[in-house]
Amino acid sequence: MDGNRGILAIDVGSGTQDILVWRPEESYEHHTSLLDTPRFKDHLDRFRRGDLTNREIFDEMGHGCHILARAGEASPFAHLSLTGPNRERFAEIEGHMAAPYGDMMLTGCFGLLEAVKEKTEKNGDGEREGCNAS
């Protein structure tokens, strides 16, 4: 896999004070209030390399971590995107502060709309495919 493929997206939430980090088939979730920037950066770096463990996160009172074997070899997921109501808390971490149309609370909504658009665009034979296509 190309080392530049993929995205590491971070949703720094408010209600439950959780951080959710994901890339295809992998996730990390921890309480925002339990992490300072240096510790979170360490977790991110190790998540990218594939050597952060579920036990370690769980023992720290986080929700957990799931990383596929050899994840770090497949892709370092160089692109980092931060969103969510508490994203400024980790502004020191280099990444894109995602706020589509100026409203970071709608990142998920716009992402879902983009996915539906992609699924429903015309394919090569002029037929539409996807959800409720007509």
Report on this model:
This protein is of the alpha/beta class. The chain has one domain. Helices cover 28% and strands 21% of the residues. A six-stranded mixed β-sheet has the order 4-3-2-1-5-6.
Topology (elements, then pairings):
Blueprint: E1 7-12, E2 18-23, E3 26-31, H1 37-49, H2 54-59, E4 64-66, H3 71-74, E5 79-83, E6 96-97, H4 107-120
Parallel strand pairs: 1-5, 5-6
Antiparallel strand pairs: 1-2, 2-3, 3-4
Could you give a short description of this structure?
The chain has 134 residues and is α/β, with parallel strands linked by helices. Helices cover 28% and strands 21% of the residues. The chain has helices spanning 37-49, 54-59, 71-74, 107-120; strands at residues 7-12, 18-23, 26-31, 64-66, 79-83, 96-97.
How many distinct folded domains? 1
Mean pLDDT: 74
Q: Give the terminus-to-terminus CA distance.
A: 36 Å
Query: What is the H/E string?
Result: EEEHHEHEEH
Keywords:
134 residues, alpha/beta, six-stranded mixed beta sheet, 4 helices, 28% helix, disordered C terminus
